[in-house]
Amino acid sequence: MKYSPDEIRKAAIAIQPYIAELLDAPNAQRLERQLEGLLSQSSLKQGSHTQLSHLLAEHESTQDWIRLYLEEQYPAEDILKALRVYYPLPGIENSVESPRYICPVEKCNQDWYRKNREDEIPVCPVHGLKLIIDS
Ligand SMILES: [Zn+2]
Question: What is the mean pLDDT of residues 93-105?
Protein backbone atom coordinates (compact mmCIF):
# COMPACT_ATOMS: atom_id res chain seq x y z
CA MET A 1 0.00 0.00 0.00
CA LYS A 2 1.19 3.48 -0.78
CA TYR A 3 -0.27 5.60 1.96
CA SER A 4 1.44 7.99 4.34
CA PRO A 5 2.11 6.93 7.96
CA ASP A 6 -0.65 9.30 9.13
CA GLU A 7 -3.18 7.86 6.71
CA ILE A 8 -2.30 4.30 7.68
CA ARG A 9 -2.66 5.10 11.37
CA LYS A 10 -5.99 6.88 10.82
CA ALA A 11 -7.33 3.99 8.74
CA ALA A 12 -6.09 1.38 11.24
CA ILE A 13 -8.05 3.15 13.99
CA ALA A 14 -11.14 3.57 11.82
CA ILE A 15 -11.29 -0.06 10.69
CA GLN A 16 -11.18 -1.56 14.20
CA PRO A 17 -14.95 -1.74 14.86
CA TYR A 18 -15.49 -3.50 11.52
CA ILE A 19 -12.84 -6.19 11.60
CA ALA A 20 -15.18 -8.81 13.05
CA GLU A 21 -17.37 -8.50 9.98
CA LEU A 22 -14.56 -8.33 7.45
CA LEU A 23 -12.75 -11.50 8.44
CA ASP A 24 -13.60 -14.90 9.81
CA ALA A 25 -13.33 -15.19 13.56
CA PRO A 26 -9.76 -16.52 14.01
CA ASN A 27 -8.29 -13.99 11.57
CA ALA A 28 -10.38 -11.17 12.99
CA GLN A 29 -9.20 -11.86 16.54
CA ARG A 30 -5.60 -12.09 15.44
CA LEU A 31 -5.76 -8.83 13.50
CA GLU A 32 -7.60 -7.02 16.31
CA ARG A 33 -4.89 -8.03 18.78
CA GLN A 34 -2.05 -7.03 16.45
CA LEU A 35 -3.61 -3.66 15.64
CA GLU A 36 -4.22 -2.93 19.29
CA GLY A 37 -0.61 -3.73 20.06
CA LEU A 38 0.72 -1.46 17.36
CA LEU A 39 -1.71 1.38 18.02
CA SER A 40 -1.31 1.38 21.79
CA GLN A 41 2.23 2.69 21.53
CA SER A 42 1.81 6.34 22.43
CA SER A 43 3.68 7.53 19.39
CA LEU A 44 4.28 5.24 16.48
CA LYS A 45 7.82 4.04 16.27
CA GLN A 46 9.71 4.52 13.07
CA GLY A 47 8.55 1.86 10.68
CA SER A 48 5.53 0.59 12.59
CA HIS A 49 3.21 2.07 9.99
CA THR A 50 4.85 -0.37 7.58
CA GLN A 51 3.80 -3.19 9.90
CA LEU A 52 0.30 -1.74 10.07
CA SER A 53 0.06 -1.51 6.34
CA HIS A 54 1.29 -5.09 5.91
CA LEU A 55 -1.31 -6.33 8.39
CA LEU A 56 -4.11 -4.48 6.68
CA ALA A 57 -3.05 -5.70 3.23
CA GLU A 58 -3.03 -9.37 4.23
CA HIS A 59 -6.67 -9.89 3.37
CA GLU A 60 -8.63 -8.71 0.37
CA SER A 61 -11.53 -7.46 2.47
CA THR A 62 -9.42 -5.28 4.77
CA GLN A 63 -7.41 -4.01 1.82
CA ASP A 64 -10.59 -2.99 0.01
CA TRP A 65 -11.92 -1.36 3.17
CA ILE A 66 -8.77 0.78 3.47
CA ARG A 67 -8.90 1.69 -0.20
CA LEU A 68 -12.51 2.87 -0.01
CA TYR A 69 -11.76 4.77 3.18
CA LEU A 70 -8.56 6.52 2.12
CA GLU A 71 -8.88 6.81 -1.65
CA GLU A 72 -12.59 7.15 -2.18
CA GLN A 73 -13.28 8.85 1.14
CA TYR A 74 -16.23 6.67 2.08
CA PRO A 75 -17.58 7.28 5.58
CA ALA A 76 -16.40 4.35 7.72
CA GLU A 77 -19.96 3.26 8.56
CA ASP A 78 -20.92 2.88 4.89
CA ILE A 79 -18.05 0.71 3.76
CA LEU A 80 -19.38 -2.70 4.85
CA LYS A 81 -22.50 -2.04 2.85
CA ALA A 82 -20.45 -1.13 -0.21
CA LEU A 83 -18.26 -4.22 0.14
CA ARG A 84 -21.24 -6.56 0.47
CA VAL A 85 -22.16 -5.59 -3.06
CA TYR A 86 -18.93 -7.17 -4.29
CA TYR A 87 -18.67 -10.29 -2.20
CA PRO A 88 -20.13 -11.91 0.90
CA LEU A 89 -18.16 -10.92 3.98
CA PRO A 90 -16.97 -13.89 6.03
CA GLY A 91 -17.57 -12.37 9.46
CA ILE A 92 -21.35 -12.67 9.28
CA GLU A 93 -22.34 -16.28 9.01
CA ASN A 94 -25.04 -16.99 6.48
CA SER A 95 -25.22 -13.31 5.66
CA VAL A 96 -27.15 -14.21 2.53
CA GLU A 97 -29.91 -15.97 4.47
CA SER A 98 -29.98 -13.60 7.43
CA PRO A 99 -32.82 -11.14 6.85
CA ARG A 100 -31.85 -7.53 7.18
CA TYR A 101 -33.78 -5.17 9.40
CA ILE A 102 -33.64 -1.41 9.04
CA CYS A 103 -34.91 1.65 10.87
CA PRO A 104 -38.28 2.83 9.49
CA VAL A 105 -36.98 6.40 9.42
CA GLU A 106 -35.84 7.32 5.95
CA LYS A 107 -32.10 7.96 5.61
CA CYS A 108 -31.35 6.38 8.98
CA ASN A 109 -28.39 4.05 8.56
CA GLN A 110 -29.12 1.66 11.42
CA ASP A 111 -29.38 -1.91 10.28
CA TRP A 112 -29.24 -5.34 11.86
CA TYR A 113 -29.19 -8.93 10.64
CA ARG A 114 -31.38 -11.51 12.31
CA LYS A 115 -29.16 -14.55 12.54
CA ASN A 116 -31.43 -16.64 14.75
CA ARG A 117 -35.19 -16.89 14.78
CA GLU A 118 -34.99 -16.48 18.56
CA ASP A 119 -33.28 -13.11 18.32
CA GLU A 120 -35.51 -10.29 19.42
CA ILE A 121 -35.75 -7.48 16.89
CA PRO A 122 -33.99 -4.44 18.36
CA VAL A 123 -35.05 -0.81 18.31
CA CYS A 124 -33.09 1.87 16.49
CA PRO A 125 -30.75 3.43 19.08
CA VAL A 126 -31.21 6.83 17.41
CA HIS A 127 -34.98 6.92 16.92
CA GLY A 128 -36.25 4.40 19.47
CA LEU A 129 -38.38 2.66 16.82
CA LYS A 130 -38.50 -1.07 16.28
CA LEU A 131 -36.54 -2.05 13.19
CA ILE A 132 -38.53 -3.36 10.23
CA ILE A 133 -37.58 -6.00 7.71
CA ASP A 134 -35.87 -4.65 4.62
CA SER A 135 -37.87 -5.80 1.60
ZN1 LIG B 1 -33.24 5.26 13.18
Answer: 75
Q: Separation of 30 CA from ligand 1 center, angstroms?
A: 33
Residue 121 domain flag = yes
CB 55 within 8 A of CB 77: no
What domain range is 58 assigned to? 5-86
Bridge-partner residues for 34, per DSSP? none
In the chain, the N- to C-terminal Cα span, in Å, equals 38
Q: What is the CA radius of gyration of the chain?
A: 17
Distance 100 CA to ligand 1 centre (A): 14
Q: Are strands 111-113 and 100-102 parallel, antiparallel or unpaired?
A: antiparallel
Question: Residue 24 C-alpha to ligand 1 middle, in angstroms?
Answer: 28
pLDDT digits (tens, 9 = 90+) for 27-83: 999 999 999 988 887 555 667 888 899 999 999 999 999 999 999 999 999 999 888
User: What is the whole-number distance in angstroms between the Cα of residue 102 and the centre of ligand 1?
Assistant: 8
